Each structure stands twice: as structure tokens, then as C-alpha cells.
Amino acid sequence: MNRHEHGSSHLDNGKAGGEWTFRSSDDTCRAIPMVDAQLDSRDLFAAGRLVTIAHGEHTYQLRLTAQNKLILTK
User: Which of 2, 26, 43, 53 is spaced 20 to 30 A from 61 at the CA atom?
Assistant: First the structure.
């Protein structure tokens, strides 16, 4: 698995499943399993209640609320 620049993610293609690799603001890197283009939110939010997503030139915040809802903001 390759290391990636801050804020980017990578899907390992070529098999039914894969992994997204995330680098957090404290420069740690972790892999999240992905099966059939699906992530489990428990894996996604294991390190906290906020995920930052870089998409093109924009940055989005995906938050897990106290009511267990997801909110995506720009």
C-alpha cells in the first residue's frame, strides 16, 4: 500500500474489495476496508467524529452527530 499526501485517499483496484487509505492531520495513516464500493461508517469514524474529504480544489467535512446522523458540509 502506498503512502499518500495529506487529505488524499486511494482505492486499491483490481479485486472485489479494496482499502481506502487516509492520512489525518497528525500525519498518521490508516487503512479502511472496502467491499463492493462500500465503507462501514464505524471504520470511517473510528478515530473521531469528523472526516475531512478533499475533492478537486474543494474540502468537505463529514461529521457524525450525537444522534448518529451524517452531515456533509463544504
Answer: 2
